[in-house]
Amino acid sequence: MRRLLLSLLAILTLVLPGLALAQAPAPAPAPASLAPAFRSDRIIVETRGAGPDVIFIPGLGSTGAAWRSTADRLEGRYRVHLVTIRGFGQTDIGANARGALAAPAALEIERYIREHRLSRPALIGHSLGGQIALRVAADMRGRVGRVMVVDSAPFFPALVDSRVTTREVEPLARLGYQALMLFGDQALKGQVSALGGDLGLAGDMVFDGLGLQGGDRRVLAQGLYEALTVDLRPRLRDVTAPVTVVYGWTRDTNNPRNRLEGLYRYGFSTLPRPAQFVRIEGADHQVMIDQPARFQAAVEQFLG
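Above: the chain's sequence. Below: its structure in token form.
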């Protein structure tokens, strides 16, 4: 059991590295002309540009600013919608102070799509945001045009062992939740660092996250818990939109990322139509930041 828990901790440092970072200053607010009319106590949406709709959903501990560089290159040809989950960065936590996080956020994105009458928008989600994108696509089916998930999986622990269950993982998830609630992300950083001998390279990766703004410990803790325990694989059969999976990869056989490719493919194997897989060599979890040019090319192909 100890070996399984250590392995799961290692995979978390690959797919959720931002949890251990101290909170950084919030990005500058968007100009007033970009402020959307949509009001929500769960999410914030910044909208700009004109053209086909593309909704960007960031990962755990990130705000919509994580997508700004990618969105800037689309703005003249697409209408981009940058989502921030309340409580990430320095945003007000709102209703995310209690209860579930990802499912209510998905419902609010669905409400946004309906109220703004978006026509079959493309969804691009990173990490936890990729799971939220899958929820939206499963719920709305034909009202979503296409989905890109970036370094995400329908059940993160399956990237360690495809046979693992939520029941087996829940004690670790509860431990992570309690640690974040008790110590906050800065104190957890020191505790994870002390595990370096057990986690090796994966332990070092916890410090390599970029573009992350941290957030309120309540949403970080809840997001971690859900990422470990929520299994969306049964929902994949409801996703009718085409799905593209983009992930960081390396040729180095000693790097844990080299061995994730088959597990990513297996995780999405129950989609009604086979997913397209795009590996970005030289990228870790923050694919769009680690290899921006290669990631931008993948986005252009996805939208084209």
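The longest helix spans residues 166-194.
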